[in-house]
User: Which sequence fits this backbone?
């Protein structure tokens, strides 16, 4: 399977993020089924504090039993890897002060990725203020919201290092998403695929970020906390262009 071929680049794509620690595998089946009905394009699986391989495996298995949409791992470190997924965002947190998050965990995970034969999607992961849990755990020097030029510089650096994906992350549950102005500035300057996530709570946010040029938007909290997941996802999909 080639994820890049599966994901249509004409429109902004919607990625549903599932944190294995937030719900049981049976609830995951329900979420995956409803998100697919709502029109999500793929699933990402990961979180800052994944408690163990077994819950990760069970979560991915539950999604795979429910849908044929791609499942892409979003690992916080090498413990977030499983052979049961289709692909992995091989991410380096470029604005971390801690070398484990830029190259250390990558070194630990690389042999496992080879062994598991996962499709590798190289990604520069950039934390923008407020940054939330991932900013704290990843010891990030968060990009100031009013400094799009710093986001552009980091994104270009990621692209020149060979990364095909750039992820602007405001942190899960952030009270506001990455500013559309920053998304636009980055998109205008890079050829790599642009992913934006963190704090995208409503269709208005999704529309503004899509219009600014994001190739992918990620929503986690907005799906986990909604009673009607299908409607929540379709309300995002309807507003993105
Ligand atoms: C986390 O950006 C994602 O990496 C999702 O954030 O939970 O705020 O949607 P939310």
Assistant:
């Amino acid at each position: 399977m080639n994820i890049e071929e599966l994901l249509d680049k004409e429109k902004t794509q919607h990625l549903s993020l599932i944190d294995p620690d937030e719900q049981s595998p049976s609830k995951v089946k329900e979420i995956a089924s409803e998100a697919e009905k709502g029109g999500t394009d793929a699933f990402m699986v990961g979180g800052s504090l994944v408690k163990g391989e077994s819950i990760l495996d069970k979560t991915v298995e539950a999604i795979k039993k429910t849908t044929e949409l791609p499942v892409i791992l979003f690992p916080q470190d090498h413990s977030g890897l499983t052979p049961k997924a289709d692909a992995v965002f091989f991410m380096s947190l470029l604005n971390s002060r801690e070398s484990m998050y830029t190259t250390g965990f990558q070194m630990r995970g690389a042999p496992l990725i080879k062994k598991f034969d996962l499709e590798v999607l190289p990604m520069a992961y950039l934390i923008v203020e407020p940054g939330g849990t991932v900013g704290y755990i990843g010891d990030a020097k968060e990009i100031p919201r009013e400094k799009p030029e710093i986001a552009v510089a980091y994104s270009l650096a990621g692209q020149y290092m060979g990364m095909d994906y750039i992820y602007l992350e405001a942190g899960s549950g952030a009270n506001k998403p990455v500013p559309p102005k920053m998304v636009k500035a980055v998109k205008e300057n890079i050829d790599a695929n642009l992913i934006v996530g963190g704090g995208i709570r409503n269709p208005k946010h999704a529309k503004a970020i899509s219009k600014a040029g994001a190739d992918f938007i990620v929503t986690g909290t907005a799906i986990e906390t909604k009673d009607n997941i299908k409607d929540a996802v379709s309300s995002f999909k309807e507003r993105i262009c």
About this structure: Residues 17, 169, 172-174, 197-200, 218-222 surround SN-glycerol-1-phosphate (CB under 6 Å). The CA atoms of residues 32 and 63 lie 6 Å apart.
